[in-house]
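Marked as duplicate of an earlier ticket. Keeping the data here for the record.
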Amino acid sequence: MSRQQNNISNQNNNMQCMNTQPPLFKQICVIGLGLIGASLAQAIKDNGLSERLVAVDRHTPSIDEAIQHGLLDAGSAVLSEVVFGSDLIVIAVPVQAVQTVFIDIKAAMDNGQLATDCILTDVCSTKVNIIDAAKAVFGSLPIGLVPAHPIAGAENSGYHARRATLFVNHSVIICELPTTSNVAITKLRQLWEAVGANVMSMDAEHHDRILAHTSHLPHLLAFNLVEQLASHDDNLDMFRYAAGGFRDFSRIAASDPKMWHDIFLPTKARLLAPLMSMAFTYRPCVSLSSIKIQPP
């Protein structure tokens, strides 16, 4: 067993000994074992929040390792093989894949594998398009749907980057829809609070507008800065002599590009406002009419 696996195992034992409360859920199904999904699964396991924990991921080695580590009771690349009896489903896939997941969930409800009041939540950093995707698939929004967004993460991704403490003292925003049952909202709040998060409510539209400024824009700038410098003729020297400020700013450019591609697409309109504001702010500093800009 590796040192990382041993540390995780010790954390599991310590947390399970401390927890004396009955599990919140009978079976939680996590769809997607990337950084957020796997970290939440580990936190759920460590805190004894579910009698059973299952997962769905197309990356078979992640499923196999999670079962071997004792994190999961079962796992599969196919939702219908493990979802039966789940009372909470956590969707932790890239934004553009969520509608396909909803289709699979609806099929499971239609064939009796899932109760129609099963709690459904996600961890995506955009919320309006998640709600729209649910409407497109279900027609009317399920009473168990509670869109959520943990404001936590790291530049590393994947199952092996998981940390059960990732959400401790971090904010989690939930969107309390008028169509959602109070039971679903309360239980999801309890779940996030049990893994150490600070839970707050926010309207989906307001959430997307705020996060466009505070999260999506910094990532967009970091990705573009690193790409610009990497394409420069002197790129080796630029990266070799980069100071701490550059490393701090560009660190997030190491994040999963597929995930951020899926975030940027539906937020283009909301990103334009802060981008235009930045351009206007710097306009007095640079007169394009008097300075000839050299190509990189």
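See parent ticket for discussion. The longest strand covers residues 25-31.
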